[in-house]
Please model this.
Amino acid sequence: MKEWFRKYLKVLTRPSVHYSLGFLTLGGFLAGIIFWGGFNTALEATNTEEFCIGCHEMENNVYQEMKTTIHYTNRSGVRATCPDCHVPHNWTDKMARKMQASKEVWGKIFGTINTREKFEAQRRRLAEHEWDRLKANDSLECRNCHNFEYMDFTAQSDRAASMHSTYLEKGEKTCIDCHKGIAHELPDMKGVEGW
Model:
């Protein structure tokens, strides 16, 4: 094994016999661009609503619920899709979220939530995971569309205007603290603080 490693290291460190350093550098640069383009294309393909609802677990459960909310159909015609709420927009956070989501592939493979009954049994755990994630990032995905600075408090109910101006301005709470279940049905909320 040691001899094989030595031979391999020798091949890697000796100069190229047939190609110039410029050709190898340019080739490596072009290969990097092709790799990066392919990687980004695949990343964006997995960041669409069509991809998200491609499995029946999502299409038959949470997607059907979202279709009844204001985030799907509203008077302004602006519609949120799965990645708008569940995938951060900036690249580093998006990559971290994609790595976390790779665990969800295991759930698909092993059928963790492949029936409505299994999904309902896991709903609270799944919801709490998302609530914790949104709480930790100060509801970043909500704030990509809803900007506190542009809120018209006069168009809000007295209660909403009071809450938004008090808690959001001071940074005491974040969107998900009050808006759980805004796009999906709530799980059994027994034992959840404030419910």
Summary: The chain is about 60% helix and 0% strand. Residues 67 and 73 are 7 Å apart (CA to CA). The mean pLDDT is 86.
